[in-house]
Structures are given as C-alpha cells and as structure tokens.
Amino acid sequence: IEKDTGWNISDSLKELAQLAETAGAQVVDIISQRRERPDAAFFIGRGKVHEINLLRQSKDINLIIFDDELSPAQQRNLEQALGVKVLDRTALILDIFAQRARTREGKLQVELAQLRYNLPRLGGQGLVLSRLGGGIGTRGPGETKLEVDKRRIRERIADIEAEIEQIKKHRSLHRERRQRAHVPTLALVGYTNAGKSTLLNTLTNASVLAEDKLFATLDPTTRRLKLPNGQEALLTDTVGFIQKLPHQLIAAFRATLEEVVYADLLLHIVDASHPRYEEQMDSVFEVLRELQADTKDIITVFNKIDKIENPNIIARLVRESGSVAISALTGLGIDSLLEQVQNKLRIITTDVCLVIP
Ligand code: GDP
C-alpha cells in the first residue's frame, strides 16, 4: 500500500529486505499489492492471503514481514490464516535494536519500546508462534515479559521509565560539566549506512564498529577530536535514522538522541552515491524536526564521493552553501571538512561570547 512519500514501493520493500537480512532472516520472496486502502481484517486482500499461503507451503516459509504497521487484530488474523509468524516493519526494527543495543540505557529504551508495542497485542492469540521465524521479533529483553500479564508489564514500564530518568539526570550532569569546560560538541546525524561510524573512525582514529548492515550504530559513542588549529571538540555518533521510523520509537530514543539536541553543531552525513539520497535526507530532517533540532547549525557532508564517477555531480552537490563532499573511507575532502567545522565553531563560539557578558 503506497503512502504519499517520495519512496516508491519497490525501494521501500528492498530496504525492508535488507533490514530482515540484518536481523538474520533469509529473504525468499518479495510481494507487493496495489490497493485503494488496507483491508480492515487482513491488511491485504483475501486473494492475496491465499496466494501467500500457497507460496508459503511451496517454499517452506516460516516468517512473513509487512512493510507497514499492522493493527493487533490484522496481525492476529494473518497469523491464524497463514499459520506462521507475521511481523511488521516496527517489530522488525525493534528486533534489530534489541540485538544491537550496547549500553544499559540503550537496552532499557528497546525494552520499553518493545513492551509498549506488545501491550495491545497481548491476549487472544490463537497460536503460540513466538519461537518460529528464527525468533525474529521476539528477541531482546522484551521477550520474556510477553507471557506475563498486562498489569506486570505496566509495572515494568514504570520501573524502566524511572531508571531511564536516573540515567538521564546523570548524563545531564556530565553535559553541564562539559559545557562549563567549554568543549564544543559535534553530533553526527544521518540516514543509516550513510557512513557515520566510518567518518568517526577516520576523524578520531577510534575503532568504532563499522559494518555494511543497517543500524550498526545504536548507542551514542563520543570521541575527542583535535581540529587543525589545536582546538578540541567532542564528536558523537548517533543512531542511524531510517524512513518510517515509528513515532513511538523516536519518542523512546529521545533521551539517546539528546546528544543531537544539545550539540553545538550537527554534521549531516549523506550517502551521495545512493540513488535515493534526497529522500533519505528528508527522512533525517523529519526526525530532526521531531526533536526540534532542525534549526541548529548544520554542515551537510556528502559522503562516498569515491563511488561517484561524474565530477559534475559532486560540484553540483557542494554548490549549496554549508556543505562539503568527502570520502570517509579514503580520507578525500576530510581537510576541508575540518576547516568548515573550525570556521562554524568560531562563529558559534563568538555568538556565545556576545550573549554572555
Ligand atoms: P553508518 O550506519 O552511518 O554508521 O554507516 P557505516 O559507517 O557503518 O558505513 C556503512 C557502509 O558504507 C560500510 O560498509 C562502509 O565501509 C561504507 N562506507 C562508509 N563511508 C564510505 C565512503 O566514503 N566510500 C565508500 N565507498 N564506502 C563507504
């Protein structure tokens, strides 16, 4: 079912397949259906349900993932009709977050989002399918809580919220200390797989996990950066943004994304070699708006220019003011990026000096 975004069905499904593979699934087939509006009971039409059922039998499929959010009833009806586990994009993204969260806070945020997602889906399930489909959608701290009753889940949600609040307070103390020390902070934002971790590595020679999978970065990583003029800055990597990132997830990760909100300068990393880079940029801006961080100082960093053959394209990209073209992998353009950062920080710091007497 197509929504009025710049993404077409096939791009969105291709990305869904990549997400499924990131979660450990093997993608057997990709199916789409054009409809005026989703079916209330099954999301897709009855004929399509039948078609998928035949396909499932012939290809031995044990998991079906939908690109749009299913209502709890639709999910239940589909599982009953198809006899296999049925997930939607939200559950898949939550599963990937669950596998990859590293910090205590990251883990708590995922558990919270999973509990909130699962709460209306509890009860009335005709099939016990939690272990089918390679466990995808059932992993993570949320899974053991699925079988306990709703009251216990609500209590757990309250406990987690309280603990996250504590962690948040602790972090804000750290931030205050940093601000008193006048160390400017930069935050890397960008669509998932744009090259944020790679750039963080190149800039700081730190060995942060970089891999060609969606969502390699979940928790913020902060590194110290020395600029050519000797000034020091802190550089933070953030969670990768993605289209159709569920709203409750953005809310859940608001605390983690605080680093973005409080940063002095944002570096928006764009995979300029991606055919849909403009739509990816829009998705990032949407999240920044959601965080009320879209009016911050931003340098747009067009990355992966080593993959672009036509130099005219690169020239066109950087004609836009406040942007720079680089290759985080080969180091091309890093010098001019650092220079831009230095200049921007000089202006920002001057602004601060004017405000504070
Ligand atoms: P993140 O999700 O934004 O943190 O992206 P990563 O840093 O994990 O990079 C995603 C993939 O893109 C990895 O396979 C990187 O090796 C690759 N990559 C990152 N920067 C560049 C670049 O400048 N050129 C090329 N060719 N590949 C890059």
Brief rundown of the structure:
Helices cover 45% and strands 12% of the residues. The protein has 357 residues and is α/β, with parallel strands linked by helices. It has helices at 9-22, 46-59, 72-82, 89-100, 104-118, 150-180, 196-204, 247-252, 258-262, 277-290, 311-319, 334-355; strands at 63-66, 85-88, 185-190, 221-226, 232-237, 265-271, 298-303, 323-325.
Report what the structure shows.
By secondary structure, this protein is of the alpha/beta class. Helix 1 packs parallel to helix 4. The C terminus is likely disordered. The protein contains twelve helices and eight strands. It binds guanosine-5'-diphosphate. Guanosine-5'-diphosphate binds next to helix 7.
Through-space gap between termini = 57 Å
Main β-sheet, spatial strand arrangement: 4-5-3-6-7-8
**Average pLDDT metric:** 81
The assembly state of the depicted protein chains is: single chain
Radius of gyration from the alpha-carbon trace, in angstroms: 22 Å
Low-confidence parts: 124-130, 352-357
Structural class: alpha/beta
Q: Give me the number of helical elements.
A: 12
Order of helices and strands: HHEHEHHHEHEEHHEHEHEH
Helix percentage range: 40-55%
Name the bound molecules: guanosine-5'-diphosphate
